[in-house]
Amino acid sequence: MNKLVLPKKKYKGIKIYCRICKVDNPKCNHFESFTYRVRVHIPGTQKSVKSKILNSKIYSDAVIEAINFEKHLITNNYQTIVADSAEGNDYSVIDSIIKYNQYLNGESEYAQFKKSVTNEHRKELIRFCKYFAKTLKKNKNIELTRIKDVSRQDVSNFYSWADNHYNPKTFNKCLNGVKGFFDFLIDIEEIEMKNPFRKYSRKQIQKTNIDSVTREEFIKILEAVDTFSPFVVLGGRGERKNMFKPYLKDGFRLFLLTGGRREEIVDLRWSHIYVSVSGVKFFRIQNLKVERNLNVDGLYKYIPINSDLFDLLVEMGYHEKKQTDDYILLPERKVKSKTIMDSISKSFTHYKNGAGIEKDISLKSLRKTYITWVHQVMQKETGLLTSHSTTKVLESYYIDPQILSVVERGAVEIKIFGHNS
C-alpha cells in the first residue's frame, strides 16, 4: 500500500501515527500500520492533549473526522475521552535520540529553542545517548519501546555499564549528558514523565595536581623534537606513525607565550594583531568558549604581545606577513584545524616522554604555565586576560579602557619563566 503523507499546509494537530511503534510521524517502515491521528490541546493546560486515531486513510476525510472530534470535545468541555488520550508527545527510544540530535544541530522547529553547540560536543552527547540505547537493547526493542517507559532498572543497567567503562570524571559527564537528554524531552518536547536520571550517585573525583612546566623542562621538550625518534608504534599490528611536524616547536612556543586554547592558537592570523594608541601590540580574537557558553556572538579576548612573543613572531615572519590574513602557524595548510590541534597535542606528549619527563603534563599545561606567570604580574586582573571573567567590548575596533590598560601593562611586564624564554 502507499505510504501516508501530509500536505505542506496540513490541518492543525493532524499527525501520521504508527500503530506498532505507537509514535507520531514515525521513521519506521511499518507503512501498513500507518494511520492519521489528531491531537487537540486542552485549553488552560500546558501540555495536556486529547487525541484520536482517525479511521480514514484518505487525508481529506481524516480532516473531517478531526474537525468533528474537536467539536465534540468543545461541546463536552474536553471531559469525554474519545478513542484514545495522550499527555504531551510520545516517542520511541530511537526517535527520541533522533529528535535530540536535531535539536543539538539547531534544527528545532521553534526559533526560541534553537540550540547552538559545537559539532564535537553534539557528537559526544549523542554518543552517550547511543550507549544508553545500546544497554536498553539487551532487554528491549528500542524501536518500539516508548521513551517514557524507561525504568529504574534500565537506569541501573546503564549506571553499571558506565561504571565499568569510564573513569570518575567521564562517568559523571556521561550520566549528566543522558540526564540532559531526558531534560530536553521533558522541557522542550513536553513529554509527560519524570526524568529517570534526576537522582543518581555521582563519582568522587580526586583533585589532581597537573604541574606547570618549568623553563628547563620546556627546553628539553624542544630539544627532543630534534633528537628523539619521531616514530611511535600503534596498536598490536606494529603500525608506525611519524609524530614529527615542522611546525611543532613554533606551535609549542606559541601556546606557551599566549596561554591560548587549542582552537584559538591554531587559527591565529596575522590580521588579529592590533596596535594601541600608545604603540602596544596585542592579539584580538573571538572568545569562542564564552560565546558558546552564553550563546552570543561578538565577544573577544585580548592577548598582550610581550617582548618574548614578539621575538617569536618576528622569527615566524612578522615583518613580511603583518598586513596579511594568513595563518601564523602552518599558513600553507591543506588539513583541517582540528587535525593540527590533535597533532600538536599528541606530539607534545610524545616528545615530553622522549625528553624523559615523568611529570603529568600535557599541551594544556602550557596554558596553566602562562596563567601562573601572568598572575605573578597581574594578580586580580589576571582574569581579564584569561577570560575567567566577563569581557566587555564597546565596538568592533575598540576595547574597554580597563581591559586596554591591563593588556598594555601585560605586554610590558609579563615574562614567562620570569625572564626571556
UniProtKB/TrEMBL annotation:
<keyword id="KW-0233">DNA recombination</keyword>
<dbReference type="InterPro" id="IPR011010">
    <property type="entry name" value="DNA_brk_join_enz"/>
</dbReference>
<feature type="domain" description="Tyr recombinase">
    <location>
        <begin position="208"/>
        <end position="411"/>
    </location>
</feature>
<dbReference type="InterPro" id="IPR010998">
    <property type="entry name" value="Integrase_recombinase_N"/>
</dbReference>
<dbReference type="InterPro" id="IPR013762">
    <property type="entry name" value="Integrase-like_cat_sf"/>
</dbReference>
<dbReference type="Pfam" id="PF00589">
    <property type="entry name" value="Phage_integrase"/>
</dbReference>
<dbReference type="GO" id="GO:0006310">
    <property type="term" value="P:DNA recombination"/>
</dbReference>
<keyword id="KW-0238">DNA-binding</keyword>
<dbReference type="InterPro" id="IPR050090">
    <property type="entry name" value="Tyrosine_recombinase_XerCD"/>
</dbReference>
<feature type="domain" description="Core-binding (CB)">
    <location>
        <begin position="91"/>
        <end position="186"/>
    </location>
</feature>
<dbReference type="GO" id="GO:0015074">
    <property type="term" value="P:DNA integration"/>
</dbReference>
<dbReference type="GO" id="GO:0003677">
    <property type="term" value="F:DNA binding"/>
</dbReference>
<protein>
    <submittedName>
        <fullName>Site-specific recombinase XerD</fullName>
    </submittedName>
</protein>
<dbReference type="InterPro" id="IPR002104">
    <property type="entry name" value="Integrase_catalytic"/>
</dbReference>
<dbReference type="InterPro" id="IPR044068">
    <property type="entry name" value="CB"/>
</dbReference>
<comment type="similarity">
    <text>Belongs to the 'phage' integrase family.</text>
</comment>
<keyword id="KW-0229">DNA integration</keyword>
